[in-house]
Amino acid sequence: MSWTEDEDKSESLNQNANAPKQPIEPQEKENLDPNREIWTLLEKTLSENIIEKRRARRWRIFFRFSMLAIIWAVLGGWFMQSTLQNANLEGDVIAMIPMRGVIGADAEIESSDVVNLLDDAYQNSRLKGVIIEMNSPGGSPVHSGIIYDAIRAKEQAYPEIPVLVVVEDMAASGGYYIASAASEIYADKASLVGSIGVISSGFDASNLLEKIGVERRTFTAGRNKAFLDPFSPMTDEARDKWQAVLDETHQQFINAVKEGRGDRLTITDDVFSGMVFTGSQAQKIGLIDGLSSVNELLNSRFPDATPVFYEIKQDSWRELAKEFGVEMATKILSTTRIE
To answer: Where does the secretion signal sit in this chain (predicted)?
Structure first.
């Protein structure tokens, strides 16, 4: 509602003009204050303004509490649905664990997250199997080794529960490192499998600096501290020692694959060379157990079981906003930061 003081004055004068005029006694004329009407109008205006502000404030409080109640109800229902997802299931359960992306710290596949997912899955007393959907080009050998060890430990503690890996586009390098821990590995005929090797790349630009007349100044404590500096030539000692590190890491990878695949693996000159194979080629040398998809395995191996997905929750607020698609959730995200 908008108003001006002139409009209120005009309305008040019109009301006074239409009102029946009463004769004013001479004594009353003498005592009449000429500013009395103005002060009365001002008091009335201020009073109405205060009433209007109070009314608007009450509505704001009402809408805020209503919106807060709606948000809490949505959040409560969402978290309750997530918590009770498994409680309402009956019969056997198959844990579905997607592993898609690069492996490493703060990457799509991080060892601590995957280990927690495995622990959650095995807490279900109706668990009959675990299917890992693998699609990774590799990454950190450390995180790959931790996940490998976690899967092997679960298989030893629960030998009756098979762990199956289904390769989508690829399970290369660290991705296959993890997959080799599974009871069985399946892939598509065109999937890329293998790349059992270790790489460390860089470049030597020391001659370039010399040609353009730039002198490199590097101060170190320890003769091999800057052995990977691209603007300094690598010494024979540093090259041999760094190669020894890569060879040892590669051997750890090889041992893990041999332990995981066992007699199913046919060792050739290419198996541990870092070469990548198609699904069909990988099946012939025992890197995988067969050609299949997730749906085919669920229908053939676990027809009566219910798949339950165990996924890493990156950001609950953003998932909530995406699921409900409401404007209020977008406003909350723009002003709220969850560490």
So the answer is: none
